[in-house]
Design brief:
about 30% helix, elongated, 5-stranded mixed sheet, alpha/beta, 5-stranded parallel sheet, Cobalt-precorrin-4 Transmethylase, domain 1, about 250 residues, 2 domains
Length: about 250
């Protein structure tokens, strides 16, 4: 039996009662923290569930799950704790499919996610288009697909949620300003006016905890320090008057 349990957006206090109940009856508990930043404390988490919690790296789940989660779940009750909602990351979908092929029963316990939390900005959920991810630029590596997603969404009047790169093993978490720099760098190559310093954006940090939300032009958000991760960047599309009113509350 494998429980996939969402940790929620911030720390161990976001665990649901259903999730906590599953943890307490699990024979082994794993956790991954490579898909997002966790502001909680593993010792407090262990105290809550009354079990030791084993931290897994990306390679453990994506390449060698047969040596940990799947192996144990074959004949034991196992839980895997995941930041946010357990089924948002495609890597976890793959894990569930592998478990099902091995005849392992899987139970999903959902939790809060960035996809619902974005409504805290005042932007309406059903007006978001495709989500994109911005990654750290490296030598000769600058994916331009986020620019295409943003262009498509803007043409349809839709908002764009830009997830920002996480390299947990290297303790690197992309900031709002770094995300803006990535889009501006692509703009300099493409020159289609999709994202400029004048583009209005919403920068967010630490949804679910001590949230910081700022609305303004890209050039102004570049100057702001949003503090600790995780951060996300949103580029609004066509705004309803209620959305405009809500965003004004987050402008300097």
């Amino acid at each position: 039996m494998l429980y996939m349990i969402g940790l929620g957006l911030f720390d161990e206090q976001d665990l649901s009662l259903r999730g906590l109940e599953a943890l307490k009856k699990s024979e082994r508990v794993y956790i991954e923290l490579y898909t997002n930043f966790f502001h909680g404390d593993l010792k407090r988490l262990e105290s809550l569930c009354g079990r030791a919690v084993t931290l897994l790296k990306r390679i453990d789940i994506e390449e060698h799950p047969d040596e940990n989660v799947l192996k144990d779940a074959q004949d034991k009750v196992i839980s895997l704790l995941v930041p946010g909602d357990p089924m948002v990351a495609t890597t976890h979908v793959d894990l569930v499919l592998r478990a099902c092929k091995r005849g392992i029963d899987v139970k999903i316990i959902h939790s809060s996610s960035i996809y619902s939390a974005v409504a805290e900005t005042g932007l309406q959920i059903y007006k978001f288009g495709r989500t994109t991810s911005l990654v750290f630029t490296e030598k000769n590596y600058l994916p331009e697909s986020p620019y295409d997603v943003l262009k498509e969404n803007k043409e349809r009047g839709l908002h764009t949620l830009c997830l920002l790169d996480v390299k947990a093993d290297e303790q690197q978490y992309m900031s709002v300003s770094q995300g803006i720099h990535v889009l501006l760098e692509i703009e300099r190559k493409r020159k289609q006016g999709v994202f400029t310093e004048e583009t209005e954006c919403v920068g967010v940090a630490r949804f679910g905890g001590d949230s910081v939300i700022k609305y303004g032009k890209a050039k102004d958000l570049l100057k702001l320090d949003f503090g600790n991760p995780p951060h996300v960047l949103i580029v609004p599309g066509k705004l309803h008057y209620l959305e405009k009113e809500a965003l004004q509350a987050f402008s300097d």
